[in-house]
Design goal:
The protein is mainly α. Helix content is about 75%, strand content about 5%. The chain has helices at about 5-35, 40-55, 60-75, 90-120; strands spanning about 80, 85. α1 (about 5-35) packs antiparallel against α4 and α2 packs across α3 (about 60-75).
Length: about 120
């Protein structure tokens, strides 16, 4: 059973893991956007701004995915299935890396929890 100090350590480490996973996803999206725009950062920015005007109140990642999709569609890269858009999902390597990071965070949380418990008992 986890002690209060163990729970606190676990929550802090979980927060750190979520932060890094969210930032990693964002940087992957940005890299994919620049790649979809053929390296033209100004084009990517203009398309994001245009999408924000056309579709207000969406998340930043939604705009990036929309622009990536539109660029791919215009260049004949994105395929559709039954008239529906194919999701821009994660690849297997990214999922594996995220699971590995999450497992490492849990292992460190467990180690720190046991260490703090040994100090208080």
């Amino acid at each position: 059973m986890l002690t209060p100090s163990g729970i606190l350590v676990l929550l802090v480490l979980l927060g750190i893991a979520v932060y890094f996973l969210a930032n990693g996803e964002r940087s992957n999206l940005d890299r994919d956007l620049i790649q979809a725009a053929g390296g033209d950062k100004k084009l990517a920015k203009r398309m994001i701004e245009r999408a924000k005007l056309k579709y207000p109140d969406k998340s930043e990642s939604w705009y990036v995915e929309k622009v990536i999709y539109d660029l791919g569609r215009d260049r004949g890269v994105v395929k559709t299935r039954g008239g529906k858009r194919v999701s821009l999902g994660r690849n297997k390597r990214e999922v594996r890396d995220n699971l590995l990071m999450f497992g490492a965070v849990l292992w460190v949380a467990n180690l720190l929890s046991r260490t703090f418990d040994s100090f208080f008992h």
